[in-house]
Amino acid sequence: MKYTYYPGCSLKGTGRNYGESLTAVYRALDHDLEPLADFNCCGFIAYMSIDQAQALALAARNLSLAEQGGVKDLLTPCTACQVVLNRVDDFRVRYPKLMDQVLGTMREWGLEYRGTVKIKHPLEVLYDDVGIEAIKARGQGKLSGFRVACYYGCLYNRPHGITEERFFPTRMEEMFSALGIEPVDYHLKTKCCGGSLSNTVEAVGLHSIFLLLQGAKRLNVDAIATTCPLCQFNLEAYQDRVSSMFGEDVRVPVMYFSQVLGMEFGLSGEQLGLQRLFVPAKVATA
Amino acid sequence: MKAPPFLQGKITFENQVVPGFAAEVAAIPGGEGIFECLQCGTCSGVCSVAPYMDYTPRRLINMVRAGFKDEVLHSRTVWLCTGCYACAVNCPAGIHITDVMYALKRLAIRNGSHPRRFPIPVLVSEFIRNVRRTGRSNEAELVVRVAMKVNPLRLLRAAPTGLKLLRTGRMHIRGAKIEDPRRLDSMLESVSEAGK
User: Over the stretch A78-92, which tens digit does the pLDDT of each residue have?
Assistant: First the structure.
């Protein structure tokens, strides 16, 4: 089957290996991933802080492009993009007047959106649609006993998604367990990584990152697996600094869940973009 | 009435509050919930950045209701909110607290009353400039621009990370563009007119 995904800005930049590994893993399961053509920035949290109508229009343009291209499920690997794109449908219900204005103006610009596109995280699609059985069948036992802290970050299931899973999602753990990988009980899995604070108010951002890394490190993991490019970057890029800042060595490999899956499937490091990691995982790959 | 010197900056007197402020916030989509707040403090309890804020979210909401406009719009609290929605999904009164924070950010920007030289409002405006020009955001350019405005010394500290990103092929020097960024820019302009 062919899926269309919304790369957002980071999958073209710092999260390049997220896109690469997702495409490779989906390919290994006989599914094709294609980026949405001519997508624009979702607006992140920044746009909402300046202009509400414009922020919604920016997100809605992507949905409109997807709808016009016949896309039903738009795979959105970045959880921040996921929340921002989801907000369009959420606001249609909560603030119909505002949304009528926004979508009405967009229609004059040839951008119709009727609300038929569903935003899904690629992990959710693997679990719900591809199915654990198919994934298990593809496993090669390469990572048995590999200890992973599954870190979903704050926005994976918030504010949308299933209530019970807003703080304790388990899809990644279930998938890994089925493959013989060992997910640890990581209690911080939906705590916010601080988002852009790491680059703005460092005192706050770096402290948040330290706490997350320390929590995983103390569980003696081989790697942290993430579902969001911003989380991955935050947890990986500042390890040296927070280790010396807070006087505790918290250095640990931080990978995308798709890279972990790909390693288990026996895909090459190159295909998964493992060479782009700052802290490589200590495991033999094909 | 002017406060005696030893109390200045500590106490807000009744004639300094803005009674219409609560209504102003409540009128913004996302702000309508503030009158439902029970002051239970759940939001502050689950907030992962509350310990670093000047006022906790619970307190900020009550300050809005009491008309402490100046203090609210100058606070760091609204800018430290990362938008993680922990408060919103836990609020027993069903208030969309994250949306309230966004509404307060917009008011602070419109009033020009965000804390001076605080990096987040700078990041936000630079980000939007970037998106308006190309339709996409360029992470590398953004980091440089924010650092130049806030504290150029940051660039030195960010340099090793930048080099690592370059070496691993994770940085785009020249940002990507959508096909017709100027059309998107004009559309955004007209959307904003319609939203007024």
Answer: 999 999 999 999 999
Residue A251 has pLDDT above 90, yes or no: yes
pLDDT digits 0-9 by tens, A103-127: 999 999 999 999 999 999 999 999 9
Task: Find the helix packing angle between B119-134 and B181-194, rounded to 10°.
Answer: 120
Helix (H, G, I), strand (E, B) or coil at A282: coil
Inspect the interface and report whether the beta carbons of B119 and A54 lie closer than 8 Å: no
Nearest CB to B192: which of A13, A45, A51? A51
Q: Which amino acid does the sequence have at A254? A: V
CA distance A236 to A242: 11
Over A195-249, what HEC string results? HHHHHCCHHHHHHHHHHHHHHHHCCCCCEEEECCHHHHHHHHHCHHHHHHHHCCC
Return the sign of the alpha-carbon dihedral for residues A22, A85, B120, B58: negative
Chain B residue nearest residue A14, CA to CA: B170
Structure-token pair, residue B136: 């996409």
Whether pLDDT at B8 is above 80: no
Among A49, A50, A64, A81, the residue to mutate for chain B (most B Cβ within 10 A):
A49
Instruction: Give which of A254, A286, A231 is closest to A28, Cα–Cα.
Output: A286
Residues with Cβ < 8 Å from A136, sequence gap 6 or more?
A: A178, A179
Contact at CB, B83 and A195, closer than 8 angstroms: yes
pTM: 0.94
Nearest residue in chain A measured CA to CA from B46: A191
Q: Return the amino acid letter for A124.
A: E
